[in-house]
């Protein structure tokens, strides 16, 4: 059993991650702005804290007596706040929390980044060198959210250079997270149901039709924490489903929304997704267990209900600026 502190544990991904890790036998403590009454957190220790307060964060993390930290807390929606606010908040939390974990003596530290660091949807156009996209694809952020996520990865690299192998670090880029209740019709983070995202490809196009079940992210996190002492320090992993959130092959859909990608997208035949999870599979032995085909087949039908939707409208409604990942 591992004692794990999770920042942002009351959020959409955080609730499923905490619940999954607790079900696997770990001892969890959730750190967030307020204590939550979410059923997934029932019986889990919760601490209300302003994580931007670096001194308080160090003291609180030390008090948790955690063996490992998973950092999720951040402004999670691009363009949901002014660019300077997103940058200050997410960058400040990275330094406060990740640096605080090192000062608190936590020896395994994992942080959530985002696929948006790759820069797809840039207003000036975007054509990758190849598909599927993976960890070797160059990062080219074009907005404060994506840049702040890349800074999280760079903060990990910085701290690894400071501590060497005394602290083991990793970052992960979860694709468009779908919580368990959203398969049954609850609204996703953008205010649509999963079925609506499938019926209208324009809704999933900003994320290049990527997705991952939140429960699979929890299993990934468990697998990663166990492997940290054995794998190279400071690795980054994409966490994605084995298929695309689309009914048509991406070889046809991607060029429709990303001009100039006809040639590179031609390899995305059948159900092949735009993002590869091969590194997580090969290095960690992780495989996602959930697919939209199985989940929607088993899900009850009924009206959609809003559950913890961060935002249903976007003040900058062009295709790229609606991208919401984790």
Automatic annotation (TrEMBL):
Residues 4-239 form the NAD-dependent epimerase/dehydratase domain. Coiled coil: none annotated. It comes from the Bacteria. Residues 294-317 are annotated as: Disordered. PANTHER family: BIFUNCTIONAL POLYMYXIN RESISTANCE PROTEIN ARNA. This is Nucleoside-diphosphate-sugar epimerase.
């Amino acid at each position: 059993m591992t004692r794990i502190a999770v920042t942002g544990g009351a959020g959409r991904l955080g609730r499923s991650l905490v619940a999954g890790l607790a079900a696997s036998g770990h001892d969890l403590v959730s750190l967030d702005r307020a204590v939550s009454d979410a059923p997934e957190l029932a019986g889990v220790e919760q601490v209300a804290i302003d994580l931007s307060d670096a001194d308080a964060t160090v003291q609180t993390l030390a008090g948790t007596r955690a063996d490992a930290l998973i950092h999720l807390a951040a402004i999670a929606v691009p363009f949901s706040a002014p660019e300077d606010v997103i940058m200050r908040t997410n960058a400040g939390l990275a330094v406060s929390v990740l640096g605080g974990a090192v000062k608190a003596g936590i020896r395994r530290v994992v942080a959530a980044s985002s696929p948006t660091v790759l820069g797809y949807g840039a207003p000036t156009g975007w054509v990758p060198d190849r598909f599927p996209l993976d960890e070797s694809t160059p990062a080219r952020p074009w907005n404060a959210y994506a840049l702040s996520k890349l800074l999280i990865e760079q903060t990990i690299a910085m701290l690894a250079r400071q501590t060497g192998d005394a602290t083991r670090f990793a970052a992960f880029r979860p694709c468009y997270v779908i919580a368990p209740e959203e398969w049954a019709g609850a609204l996703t983070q953008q205010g649509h149901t999963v079925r609506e995202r499938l019926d209208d490809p324009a809704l999933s196009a900003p994320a290049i039709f990527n997705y991952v079940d939140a429960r699979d992210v929890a299993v990934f996190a468990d697998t990663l924490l166990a492997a940290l002492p054995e794998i190279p320090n400071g690795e980054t992993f994409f966490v994605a489903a084995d298929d695309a959130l689309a009914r048509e092959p991406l070889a046809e859909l991607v060029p429709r929304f990303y001009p100039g990608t006809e040639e590179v997208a031609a390899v995305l035949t059948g159900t092949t997704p735009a993002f590869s999870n091969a590194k997580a599979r090969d290095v960690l032995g992780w495989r996602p267990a959930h697919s939209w085909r199985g989940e929607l087949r088993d899900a009850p039908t009924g009206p959609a209900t809003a559950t913890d939707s961060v935002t249903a409208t976007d003040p900058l409604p062009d295709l790229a600026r609606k991208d919401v990942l984790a």
